[in-house]
Amino acid sequence: MPHSLPEQRASYPLAAYNFRVLLDAKALSFARVSGLQREHQFVTYRHGLSCIEGELLAKYRIDKYVPVTLERGSTIGASFLHEWLEQRSPRVLQIDLCDASGAPVLAWRIARAFAVKLTAPTFDARTNEVAIDSLEIMAAGISIVHL
Fold it and tell me: Could you read off the pLDDT of 86-128 as tens digits, one per residue?
């Protein structure tokens, strides 16, 4: 039995190239975002009857900072990456993964993002590659939201 069009759309993976970045609810264009992760820590608890009942696994979440890298083509007059690096206050960042029509369907929200390192592009006169700035941030409070 053939699947309907909405069922087919729901079962196919989303394209990773169709994303947008919002910094304090302002849309920005980036070529690449890497390092997003959310994890839980585990502790193994051994009690007196562990040899009979087995060990217990306790799961908890520590809101630790993880490095996230944002890459963007260098453009004339775009100084917001440099300004963000100089600021010392956290910013709210959201990365939306969009469907084929451009509507966001999944979002990674970062409650606290601190810019810590800005890497200049590689300057090489022998190539004609695009100049890419790379901004490393430390991110905490990452949550995944299904829109």
Answer: 988 899 999 999 988 889 999 999 999 999 999 999 899 998 9
Residue 58 identity (one-letter amino acid): A
CATH superfamily of 5-146: Hcp1-like (2.30.110.20)
Would you list the domain boundaries of the chain? 5-146
* DSSP result, the chain: -PPPHHHHHHHSPPPTT-EEEEETTEEE--SEEE------EEEEE--TTHHHH--EEEEE-----EEEEEEEE--TT--HHHHHHH--S-EEEEEEEE-TTS-EEEEEEEEEEEEEEEEPPPP-TT--PPPEEEEEEEEEEEEEEE-
The model's pTM: 0.82
Taking only the tens place, the pLDDT of each residue in 61-79 is: 778 899 999 999 888 887 8
